[in-house]
Request: fold
Amino acid sequence: MRLLETQGISINFGGLKAVDEVDTHIDEGEIVSLIGPNGAGKTTFFNLITGFLRPTKGKVFYLGKELTGLPAHQIAANGMVRTFQKTNIFSEVTVKEGICIGFHMKRKCGIWQILLNGRAAKREHSEIEERTSEILSFTGLTSWAGFRGKNLPYGKQRILEIAVALAAYPRLLLLDEPATGLNPKETQELIDLIRRVREERGVTVCLIEHNMKVVIGISNRIIVLNYGKKITDGTPEEISKDKAVIEAYLGRGFANA
Reply:
C-alpha cells in the first residue's frame, strides 16, 4: 500500500528553489533513506510533507488523501510523525514525562475532565501510564525513566526522540539525521531499534541520514536529492553504482570502497 506520495512538490525562498518539483513515494513497510549533500533540500522536504512549510506548488498525498497545506498537528494526528535534528526538545522533563507528553494528540478527555479527575480521566491516565511503561521497555529506556532528558547520554537522547514519537501512534515515522554524533555502539543500537520499529510495530520509516553505513545497512530504498531536485531512487545496490549519485554525493572513492 502506498502511504505517501508527492507530486511536483516545490518551494521557493526568494529566487532559491529549495525543493524543485519532487515526485516520490513511500510504500507501507519500507525503510527509506533520503540522502544528498548539505543544502540538497532534505529537511525542507520533510517540513513540506509534515505541514511545517506550505509548498509553493505541488501536492502531498497520505493514504490517498491530499494533505497539502494542512497544519502540522493535523498531519501528525493522521499518523505521519517526525523527529527533529535538535535533541533538547524534552531536555527539562524526565524521560517518562516526555513520553507521556507524546500522547497528547490521542487524549480523549477534556481539560475539565482531567482537572476533576473523574472516572474517564483516571482510566485514560492509567492507560497512558501502561503504554508509557511499554514504550520505555521497548526502547530500552526503563532504567532512565526518572532522568531529565538533558542528563541522558547523547545516544539515549536520540532514542528518546523515537520513544516520544512512538507515543503519537505513527504509521509513518520520519527521522531527521538520527545517527548524527553517535559512536559505533550507539549507531548499532539505533539501527537495531529502527528495524524493530518496522518489524515489531509495523511502522514505516523514512530517515534523512549522512552516515552511509547506516543508509546502506538499513534501507530498502534510497531517494537522492541534489539542489532541491530528485536525482534518482532505488535499492542500496542500485544507488551505490549510480554515476550521477557518486558524482553528486558519494564521491568517486565510494564506488571502489
